[in-house]
Write a structure and sequence with these properties.
about 270 residues; Rossmann fold; eight-stranded mixed beta sheet; two-stranded antiparallel ribbon; about 25% strand; Pimeloyl-ACP methyl ester carboxylesterase; hydrolase activity; AB_hydrolase_1; AB_hydrolase_fold
């Protein structure tokens, strides 16, 4: 039958944030997509998660239906957006799940507002050391997109085909002349500015809630970062998904479900 949701809008400091509330019983869960992503990436996870939880997803600032060109693209802006959505839910605390930069945002929310986060799930995300080339590298990658794509199928093929390619293609917008990105390149690059300049290990040490880190065999998180995460917070649960890449939530949602279900039973 597919997932059914009600769309909601939260306005914070004049910035429009749009998300989906799927309802469901039990504790609330907020799912955050990564850079250049969209809330629909979580469809496979929502399908099972809503059986025992109230599930909410968000198009983060600069992405899809939310404010396309926000003046503020700082880490604090992303964090305060998530806080505003959590507070709107009317729940005492939530389970926060994020992939890639969305996971980084989720970690910072848990550090800054421990009263709002019951548990944390990081999918291919870590505090990280400064990455000076990060913004330029992402900019170069975005420049390779042959926009507009001639068709949804052509976009899916460009992004590697399979569930990963479809997931990325589903974030595009169909217009008369083809399929366009629903974000602006400069906003994406600007959103990585702080990650290029400083580490976030202090914030990681400040997280107090139970935490699951799910990593892909062919992902982007260095082993040294994972080892440091566990040294700083030995109670952290780490699960590695074989054969998968950075977008493991799209590529292997079954393994992500297995890891999350086992973790959720412990909190």
């Amino acid at each position: 039958m597919g997932n059914v949701w009600s769309e909601f809008t939260v306005v914070r400091d004049g910035v429009r944030l749009v998300g989906r509330d799927y309802g469901g019983p039990g504790p609330a869960v907020l799912l955050l997509h990564g850079l250049a992503g969209h809330c629909g990436e979580w469809d496979a996870t929502v399908e099972w998660l809503r059986e025992g939880h109230r599930v909410v997803t968000l198009d983060q600032r600069g992405h899809r239906l939310s404010e396309r060109r926000p003046a503020d693209t700082s880490r604090d802006a992303y964090v305060n957006d998530a806080v505003a959505v959590v507070e709107t839910l009317g729940s005492s605390s939530v389970i926060l799940v994020g992939q890639s930069l969305g996971g980084h945002t989720a970690m910072l929310v848990a550090a800054a507002r421990p009263d709002l986060v019951r548990a944390l799930v990081l999918v291919e995300a870590a505090p990280g050391d400064p990455d000076p080339d990060g913004p330029a590298r992402i900019g170069r990658w975005l420049d390779t997109w042959p926009l507009p794509f001639a068709s949804h199928a052509a976009a899916a093929e460009f992004f590697g085909g399979g569930p990963v390619g479809l997931g990325w293609a589903d974030g595009l917008e169909s217009r008369a002349d083809g399929w366009h990105a629903r974000f602006d390149r400069d906003v994406m690059v600007a959103s990585l500015k702080e990650n290029a300049e400083r580490p976030f290990w202090t914030e990681w040490a400040q997280v107090r809630c139970p935490t699951l880190v799910v990593l892909a065999e062919h992902g982007i998180i260095p082993s040294r970062d994972v080892e440091r995460m566990v040294r700083q917070r030995p109670s952290t649960t780490v699960v590695r998904v074989p054969a998968a890449g950075h977008d493991l939530h799209l590529e292997d949602p079954v393994s992500l479900r297995t890891a999350m279900e086992a973790f959720l039973l412990t909190i």
